[in-house]
């Protein structure tokens, strides 16, 4: 069972490994068939452009083609203008080729490969004009072949759609957010572990950065009509809003609540934290499985109970003798939880947008069978 669980967790990794292997072997076979002088560049390219999703492979392919074409053309032009027969002239040609291409790569990541391609063209060619042109053309053909083979494999061999990766990445982010909320609630109730919270914040930042990257890949697939899944940006935006709500709760949880307040708010706060934590985890599982969002009734009931306890706290005037910053923390907590309730409603809607109807190989329509003339 542990082995099967491990294989399921790494299923996407195995599929990516298979795609990379197939792309490398296919490109090697094509390079041999076309008798490319340096076919290993085609194989390198095919391996590089294979990404975790079709959208990621599309971006890598585009960047590789743009960078290669730009570097090859510019490197050939520099080589034609500067007769680099000796080391000083070669150094001058390299400087003239690298400076603008490196600047272009710094401005636009699509040109990252351009400086490398220009160096290959200059150093790999002879001082004759025909050698330069042949070297530039060879690089373009090799890289183009690798890009074509790599993207074809990415699109046809167990393709991974970016929306599926997005759903799983967002689901993992929800789990991390649930864990962070549990730490903040524990701190408010008297348990402190700042180190764990800081480590978790770092993991959440990394998870959200990855989520945004996958969302851009999913948007590319939508732009090419490769999928009819919903727009990814609303899901990312709502996830960030939930995280912002937790940041406010974290500020309110700078320390434990005052003891007199903890006695009134503690039970309802613990119940609210547990309900929201469970909801976030359930939302993550539903999103990863592309199921409908779970009900928010438990969270609503817990928050109503917490708001009732807050109202009782005001009526009893238990905060009037507290320092201003302590009172501010208490009411900031109530405000953040209300904002979190609204954002969780939005998040459930976004999860619902990603849900897919359960398909069956055969579905019997009883109504149609009874009334065949209306079918």
Please report the total strand number as a whole number. 0
- Radius of gyration computed on alpha carbons: 29 Å
How many separate domains make up the residues? Answer: 2
Query: How far apart, in Å, are the first and last alpha carbons?
Result: 47 Å
Q: What is the CATH level 1 assignment of the largest domain?
A: Mainly Alpha
* Count of DSSP H/I helices: 14
What is the overall shape? elongated
Specify the structural class.
Answer: mainly alpha
| Overall mean confidence score, pLDDT | 85
What string gives the helices and strands in order?
HHHHHHHHHHHHHH
Q: What proportion of the residues is helical, as a percent range?
A: over 70%
CATH architecture type of the largest domain: Up-down Bundle
Summarize the structure.
The chain has 375 residues and is mainly alpha-helical. It is 78% helix and 0% strand.
Reconstruct the topology from this structure.
Blueprint: H1 2-9, H2 11-33, H3 40-49, H4 54-81, H5 87-107, H6 114-124, H7 129-156, H8 162-188, H9 194-223, H10 233-252, H11 259-288, H12 297-315, H13 324-354, H14 366-370
Helix pairs in contact: 2-3, 2-7, 3-7, 4-5, 4-6, 4-7, 4-9, 5-6, 6-7, 8-9, 8-10, 8-11, 9-10, 10-13, 11-12, 11-13, 12-13
